[in-house]
Amino acid sequence: MTRVVITGMGAIAANGNGFENFVNNTLAGQVGIKPITKFDATETGITVAGQIDDFDAAAVVGKKEARRMDLYSQYAIQVAQEAVDMAGIDETNTNPEDLGVIFGSGIGGLTTIQDQIIKMHEKGPRRVSPFFVPMAISNMAAGNISIRFNAQNMVTSVVTACATATNAIGDAFRFIKEGHAQVMIAGGSEASVNEIGIAGFAALTALSTSTGPKRASMPFDQDRNGFVLGEGGAAMVLESLDHAKARGAKILGEIVGYGATADAYHITSPDPEGKGAARAMQQAIKEAGITPADVSYINAHGTATHANDSGEAKSINLVFGQDSDVLVSSTKGMTGHLLGGAGAVEAVITVAALAQGKLPMNVGCEVQDPECQVNLVTPANQDQPTAEYALSDSLGFGGHNAVLAFRKWSDEREA
What we know:
The chain is of the alpha/beta class. It folds into two domains: 4-246, Peroxisomal Thiolase, Chain A, domain 1 (3-Layer(aba) Sandwich); 258-408, Thiolase/Chalcone synthase (Peroxisomal Thiolase, Chain A, domain 1, 3-Layer(aba) Sandwich). 35% of the residues lie in helices and 19% in strands. The radius of gyration is 20 Å and the shape is globular. The chain starts with a strand and ends with a helix. Belongs to the thiolase-like superfamily. Beta-ketoacyl-ACP synthases family. Pfam families: ketoacyl-synt, Ketoacyl-synt_C. One of its GO terms (cellular component) is cytosol. It is an enzyme of class 2 (transferase).
């Protein structure tokens, strides 16, 4: 079977605009969660979010094009452009028919939907924008990426709530592995830090009501009280190893396994025993041809809700044992929860962490919940230069479980 490597990455999150800023800030433990200023959130009861304040759509997307895209698509274009530029992919080295896109969003153009419904209600249906539908539908990030880069292979969108981007990257990995494409742009983005997004999750009592940004998203902490909504996204350029080598590409990491299962349990709550998530991890490990003992790090879904963190800890224990040395962290304490974009930013930081030999800390946890018996990454153990394999877990409303297995790339070892 074809080996699949990563040759480009792009990212934007509340704690870093651009791949380098995002990675450096995340590995340094920088929290991007802050008071909500995009709208008056007073009546929602929620005060903080993983809000992005330094995004300039015109700079990358283009002023005219940006007016025809929802913010989630604008984020998608920026991260895809960064990943493609890093990879050095263009029509001189890649046939457009060999280039595809699998890129998702959990909700799609929620800001557009919110604003246009308000306009219809206040001014009538004839005032709805002619761009409403192409801005709102959740496949248009993938479509816009395809148009921008002339990608003519499979172009599709995955929607599996908070597992969206991980499924997108995993499906793209399989598509190349099975010989259907040479290069895929994969990932996810979300832009739901708006009034209806915050209000909707607040109504579910899923969001943290904390007012302090550093004690709001608290993965695995005994006092955790919900997740913090974030925004942004990330993209990866995945490539067959032969294609990457033929054009002399710099290889950043390798995808070696993918697992996808369903809890079949509840519309919002995960299986409290973690069996479905455990099976997804086992699938990814099996496809990678390794054992649990070979895995040094897990980027956990870690939303900082009671149900998720305790269930996910149990799933890790099922696969690795309660006395395992595997290190675990959730980066949502720094970024907030990007919903459909979460798995993409977390995959990017996982690959970067392996490459640098330094793991992201589990920021936000002061007193670990006894129900969450996992070994958290701290300043004392985050330097792991010999770590070779890592997993990135994503679990979505509806019972979706998706796991990616990554391997650190070494030119010397692979020569």
